[in-house]
Structures are given as structure tokens and as C-alpha cells.
Amino acid sequence: MNHSPEALSRQQRMLLALRAGTISLNLALCATCAADDLPTPAPGERAAVDSTFDRSITRILRLGDIGRYEEALVLCDSLHEALPDHPGPYLSTAGVYVNWMQSHRLSQFQEEVDLNAQRAIDTGTELLASSDDPWLSFYVGSAYGYRALARLRRHNWIGAFLDGRRSNEHLNTALKRDPRLYDAYFALGGYHYWRTARSDFLRTVAFWMRDRRDLGLRQMQLAVDHGRYIRNGALHGLALARYDAGDWEGALAANQLLMDTIEPPTNGSLYLRGRLFAQRQDWPAVERTFKQLLTKLTVRPRGYQSVGYQVECMYWIAAALKNQGRIDASRQLAA
Question: What DSSP string runs through 82-128?
Fold first, then answer.
């Protein structure tokens, strides 16, 4: 091997050129995905209608919001029978199961989520080979999003990151084909916010990743203001992100809007509300909120209950009692 000064200088020049090229590529990639300018729809304008599934999607989402998951799944089954080669029914089924698991902190439906998300990806990809329907891109992008979440739960960080990128590509394609598909901004906003807020490992590997939490918050707000189907989910997602960012009042405002929209309130909105009241040290409200949530959690059969979730509710109730000076009641609950 030649170790002459001339050879070393050539190697150094090659290395510097490679580094410069890598930096230029990273900057180009950032510039490509840095479309931070968002549309400004007119007040009251809603996203485009999915003419194929409009009424069904609206009904399924409503049933999921109020905890009637079994009924929502029956409706999904009827869609499967009518359109077995379309990604919409598979994505709807996966969404119901994800909602059920997140609302009750369960894991037993993950296989159903994985199966239906993959079928949505497969059927949607096949149809996209001969169609430029923006809703197909939306469905496939959303399915990749569900798969990314599943991989996060399994600590498959790289797989989750790659699926998140695939989800973004399809959702951005949907927006290029129909700029009024504002529902897509919820998933994009969640990706941009939580990728930065919860990806220390990825930023160590992919050190060029920018902090795009502000963009994520603005995208979720756009979905709240102008989404047609995803508004309730976007409200909860926005409240969670603002809570994570330390914006307690912004989180409470979004949470209140959701509480005013869905009756009975969702488990997730009650839990976040209780935590927000704890931040305010409004202990009577903390007690009241977690008691309401605990009652909801114990209504379902034992096979669909999370003991850990119930224990956490009792912890917050005990803490609220203690901070109100009701020490004996707090000890009795903790015993």
C-alpha cells in the first residue's frame, strides 16, 4: 500500500469530496421534504369527500369514538364483502382495532391490525399501478402509518422510521393529486412532531434530521380546522402533542373541544384531562376525572380490561385525595 504524502493527500481529497457530497445530498433531501408552507383554506372549508366510503367511514368513526367497536367491525365486514379488493375496508378495520387497543391499553388485537394494514398496502399498491385516485394514496399512506406504530411498539426503530417515510410519501402524493385532502395533514403532523420529540436514537444515527415539531403542530391544527373525517382524532393528537410540548393551556383547549364533541367522552380524552388538571393542581377535578375513567374501564368484560390502566387511575385518585387532605381515604384506596 502506498503511504506517500501524495497518496495520502489524494485519499484525503476523496474523503472530503465524499463528505461534501453526502452533506449536499442531505441538504437536498431536507429541501425536498421541507415544504413548510401550508395551505390557507377559507374558514369553514372542509376536506374533499371520499365518494366511495363517505357515509360508511363517518359511521365507523362515530361508533369507534363512543366505544362501540363490535358494531364498527360489523360494518367493516360488510364493506369487505362489497369491495374485497379495495384498501378502504382493510384500513377501516385496522383503525377500529387500533382505537380499541389505545383506548383500553390492550395488545391482543395487534395481529388483526398487522394483517389488515398489510392487506390495505397490498391492495392499494396494486390499484395505484393503474389509478391516480388520491384516496388510494391516502389509504396506503395511512396503512404504512399503522405499521410504523406497530413497529415502534416492538422497538423496531429503523423499521418504524422507514414505514413513516413511506407513509409520508403516499400522503404527500395524495395531497399533490388533491390539495383539498386536508385529512392527510393529521398523520403528516404526527410524524413531524413525534419523530423529533421521541427519536433520540434515530437522531443519533440520522444526525441531519431537523426539529420539525412546530410544523407538526401546525399540520395537526390544519387537520382539526379543515379535516372531514379525522377531526376528532386530530384534536386528541394535537392535545397530546401540546401536552408533550408543555403547552398546558393549549392542550386543555383542544381537549375541551373534544370533550364537547363526543359523548360519552373517550378514555384517552379523560386520561389526558386528568393529567392536565394535575398540572394545575386542581385536585377535586383530578379525583372526579379519574373516577369517571375508572368506571368506564371496568364496564367491559375482564378479557378486555387493562389492570395496569386501572391501577394508574387509582394512583391518581389517591394522589388527589391526599392533596385534598383526605389522608385516610387515600390510604384506604392504596391499600
Answer: H-TT-HHHHHHHHHHHHHHHHHHT--TTHHHHHHHHHHHHHHHHHHH
Phi/psi for 309 (5° steps) reads -65, -40
Indicate the pTM of the whole model: 0.85
For residue 214, give the C-alpha cell: 412546530
CA dist., res. 292 & res. 265, Å (int)? 10
d(CA 281, CA 30): 42
Q: What angle do CA 41, 42, 48 make, to 5 degrees?
A: 55
Joined together, the cell numbers standing for residue 64 give 369507534
261, 235 contact by CB (below 8 A): yes
Contact 117, 150 (CB under 8 A): yes
CA distance 187 to 273: 23
Q: What's the N-to-C CA distance of the chain in angstroms?
A: 74
CATH 1.25.40.10 for domain 47-177, yes or no, is yes
What percent of the residues of the chain are helix, what percent strand, and what percent coil, each to the nearest 5?
75, 0, 25
Cβ pair 93, 75 in contact under 8 A: no
pLDDT, tens digit (0-9, with 9 covering 90-100), for 165-217: 999 999 999 999 999 999 999 999 998 998 877 655 555 544 455 788 999 99
Q: Where in the chain are all domains bearing CATH 1.25.40.10?
A: 47-177
Number of other CB atoms surrounding residue 327 within 10 Å = 10
